[in-house]
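Trying the structure run again after the queue cleared.
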Amino acid sequence: MPVPVPHQRTVVLPHQAGPVDDACARTARVAGAPGAGDATDRGPDAPEIEQRLSADHSPAHQGLTLLLIGEDPNSHVPEMWDWAGRKVRLRTARNLTEAERLLTDDVHCILLDLPPAEPADRTAGERSSAPGGVPGSASGDALGMLHDVLRMAPSHAVLVLTYETDAERAADAVRVGAQDYLFRDELDGAVLSRAVRYAVERKRADLAQRQLTESRMLAQENARLERGLLPTPLLDGSDLRFASCYRPGRSRALLGGDFYDTVRTADGTVHAMIGDVCGHGPDEAALGVELRIAWRALTFAGLCGDELLATLQKVLEHERADDEIFATLCTVDISADGRRAGLCLAGHPAPLLARAGERPQLLPYECGGPALGLLPEARWPRRQVELGGSWSLMMYTDGLIEGRIGEGNQRLGQEGMAELVGRQMESGLQGDALLDAAVREVRDLNGGELTDDVAVLLLDRR
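Done. Tokens:
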């Protein structure tokens, strides 16, 4: 079948019949004047290409730029003006080597001029369109250049130019990754203008959708990872009831720099811990997880009190990214009968103890030691605390007490937090309901979300 010769036309859109001002008009007249240089860049030599690139980046031209890739250096594309009345600039390349040199950030769309398909290609296309055929294989190697262009310019819109007799191959080009195709036999300025705008906007939408999908997948993966890193209390065989509340200060995060854990060892002792790594980023969250896991392993190994905290400080010193990073920590070991506990504080707020029939009181903190990571030879004395027969012990991080009260600069503080929790206990709240109500009221007093991580742990014996 003979290949039809396309009718070449130059069409200017009616609403774009001329530049919007005299300066643009002068530019258009100069561009169209004989000997003044044509708006269509042609020529394979590297010096000429570099000269065209320099001209394209001049302030005089900030409009739409197209890159035509085709074997025919005299291939004709209708003249166009963009929506601001500026003449659309066209660069041409006869091969991928030239195209790569001309492909700069200011190129909005690539026009790939496919040569006419050979009869053998059409026969292969008919076979591949039969049931069981593989989409995109109709063109054999004819679309190889399109694959190369898509690899070379993954963020650019690609518009394929071909002949009406190659309709099947044009459809294959879209399936492969081109934004659209045009038949050269029907090409004019209006059609090309609409197609270019459509291709550019579709490419932008495709990239935005891909980025959104990747962000969602990454967020889901991070969420699964963070959920897996949150602790599971090991209290089998204990009559203590456990509740916790955890709210990271980072937006859209499940894990912050605060950490906690609770385990029961073979001798019946219940060990509880809560800590806070200074800072709010993912590195601090990862360090908090490392310290929690190390605490659990050391506790099961039989360490407690000063020996355990000294070992945790060594872990912190080796794992932290900066020498100025430190962590506060509070550990409690509750005897098997539940009536006594050993308390160690490393720069951390003292727990809140509410005995049966009494208002909550802060445990003594005068004998505590410094935060982990501050002093290389620090010591953390263990203080014995009488709990009684029925009690509630609440451990928390400073994010719960550093929220503001009203519009001033006054902070809630430990005393304010103790009064708040005591009032809610008197109303009959317990366990998770008590913690949720406490955190919600602290947030309301702050006038909005708390910016710091918040972790609260509650152990009850009734």
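Confidence is low (pLDDT under 50) at residues 1-47, 49-61, 123-140. Worth checking whether this holds up in the mutant runs.
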